[in-house]
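re the bet — no i am not wrong, look at it urself. input seq straight from the record:
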Amino acid sequence: MSSTAALPRVSAAALTGPGHRLQLNEIPYGPPVSVQEALSRALASANRYPEFLPERLPRLIAERLGVPADHVVVGAGATGVILHLVQEFGSAGAQVVMATPTFDGYPILTAMAGGDPVTVPLTADGRQDLRAIAAAVTERTRLVVLCSPHNPTGTRLAPGEFEDFLRQVPRDVVVVLDEAYVDFVPAADRIDALELIRRHANLVVLHTFSKAYGLAALRVGYAVGSAGVIGRVARRQLPFGMSTLAEVAVRACYQAEPEIAGRIAMIGAHRHRLTAGLRELGMRVPESYANFAYLTLPAPDIDRVGAALADAHIHVKSYPTGIRITVGDRDATDAVLHAVRSTVQ
């Protein structure tokens, strides 16, 4: 069904107050020291404008991926790229098909662009219903959005099922595969997105440096796709819209990837401990491939568990079907488990 969306409100206390910030899927670690040092050196040139339109950063990312530079477009986080995508393909009453719940940006930005968000409920186990999503595509559909891992449940798409889905979607409908959390997925379980782009010119894949790389404050995201689709998105870019610090940070992060991989492994261990602890308390938690866990709960329990977390100054994100909890450090996990335990005893 179609729906409109309002901008979510996040209290100042949730962003700066005491307690544990587990509502925005930030990682609990700052950038590696080498990245901080590179950024510090770059501040000496803060009086200079960045490139009018970004060329060096997409070229850097393209070289890393092994694709032509005109196959990559960058933006102010993945959200910035999403905005340009819906402006280009999802405006003027066009339908944008997506799961619900999903990342808030999709229904919000679609509505802002004048598009029509068409939402399809998740399955009972927190997965995107690919059959129902394909069936929701009509002659008015211009954009379809899928996330793997999915936000907020953390479930992933199997490579085979995703390619089967691509074959069902008309070639004039752009399919967005949002892989914001793909760095937390074991390599063997990932979709070979770059190979699929070569075979499906209507596929666009989103990545971000806000999650595993810990650059949320710098707002660096990008999309990879065919030159034709990416060129249409790129023409929406804001002049001087990408900070020079973004390029510096991305280059430094690429050089620090062994350290970043170690952090990803630690987050995976904390996620396992959080998930196991919640399940021991009788909670339904889908297997997550991201840096968060999802409590699948009926409405009355969402309010009750959410209140217990709030009383413990633990900031989380609530949905109509459950509660998403970002994986933090050991202290954060201990606090979550203690708060949830108080609701089941």
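see?? The chain is about 40% helix and 15% strand. told u. also The domain at 33-255 is CATH 3.40.640.10 (Aspartate Aminotransferase; domain 2). so pay up
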